[in-house]
Amino acid sequence: MTCKARSTLLVGVLGLGVLVADTARAQDPGFLGVKDVHIVVEDLGQEGRACNVTEDGIDAAIRLPLDASRLRLNEKSADFIYANVSVRRRDDVECVAYVSLSLYRRLSTPEGQFVPGAVWHKGIVMGGGAMSDFVRRVDQRIGDLTKQLIAEWIKANPR
C-alpha cells in the first residue's frame, strides 16, 4: 500500500470513528429530562462502620443539597444517585476512603430493553486524618459531589 493510500485509509477510518462517536453521544441523554431520582447507598461493610461512617449519614449528605434544588427525590423513580464509599482503617488511628457518586438513568438498548446506565460519575480519594474528623469530611465530600451533580443537571435542564 502506498503512503497516499495509507493516509486516505487513515483519514477515512478516523472520519468513521468521529461519526460513530457523534452518533453514540447523540443517543446518550445525559441529564436531559431527568426530573426526579432516588438514592442508593452501597453497604459500607465492617471497616466503614469501624470508622463511624454510616449509610444514613451518607444518605443525609445527599438529601440536604437535593432538598434545596429543583431535582426532586422520588423513591419510585427509575433514575437514581448511587453512592459508594469504600473505607479502609489503617491501624487504630486513621481511616482512608474512596468516595464516589454516580447518576444512573434508564437507558434503552438497541434491542429495546431498558437498563440502568451511568451518565455521570465523580470520585475522590480521601487520605488519612484524625478519626474524630473523618465522618465530617466524608459527609462534606458527598455533599460537594452532590452539589456538582446538581450543577451539571441544572445546565442540562434550565427552567
Structure, briefly:
This protein is an alpha/beta fold and 159 residues long. It has helices spanning 3-27, 45-50, 55-67, 131-156, and strands at residues 36-41, 72-73, 80-90, 94-108, 114-126.
Structure, described:
This protein is α/β, with parallel strands linked by helices and 159 residues long. The chain has 4 helices and 5 strands; from the N terminus they run αβααββββα. Strand 4 (94-108) and strand 5 form a beta hairpin. Helix 3 runs parallel beside helix 4. A 5-stranded mixed beta sheet has the order 2-1-3-4-5.
Number of strands: 5
| CA gyration radius, whole angstroms | 21 Å
Strand content: 25-35%
Strand order of the largest sheet: 2-1-3-4-5
- The tally of helices reads 4
**Largest pleated sheet:** 5 strands, mixed
Give the % helix: 40-55%
Which residue ranges are poorly predicted, with pLDDT under 50 across at least 5 consecutive positions?
1-27
Q: Helix/strand/pairing class, anyone?
A: alpha/beta
Instruction: Note the overall shape.
Output: elongated
Which characteristics define this entry?
4 helices; single chain; 44% helix; 159 residues; elongated; alpha/beta; 5-stranded mixed sheet
List the helices and strands and how they pair.
Layout: H1 3-27, E1 36-41, H2 45-50, H3 55-67, E2 72-73, E3 80-90, E4 94-108, E5 114-126, H4 131-156
Parallel strand pairs: 1-2, 1-3
Antiparallel strand pairs: 3-4, 4-5
Helix pairs in contact: 3-4
